[in-house]
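Quick one, T. Sequence first:
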Amino acid sequence: MKKFKISVNGHWYEVEIKDLNESPVSVLVDGELYKVELGPEIPETEAVARVREEPELLALEPATEVGRPVTLEGEVIAPMPGKILAVNVKAGDAVQYKDVLCILEAMKMENEIMAPVEGIVKEVGVAAGQDVLYGDVLLVIE
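Structure tokens:
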């Protein structure tokens, strides 16, 4: 059994993963048991082709928090692959630091993507229901 402590949107969870060789895999999250089905392993060459290059990031928040990456050009990028459930802003909206810009679902968890800076939304590059990969530009703040 492996134990991890993870942070999602500032909330800490204790996660225990039982035997990865069993199917389904038993995962204990803060005392609640989940059964997780793992798909076939993706060959490394295929996995590398599916992941975008890592963008150059400006560290504005501790790396342990999910949902605040921003590039030097003010682009707010997807911190992980997933599906956009909701977009809470539109071009021209003024946003404050930590305003929730959109909701990204990844691995059945809803992740609030928050404004890394105060500013004006210049461009929104996603819509509800859209699938995104790590590094995709969600919106631009200036």
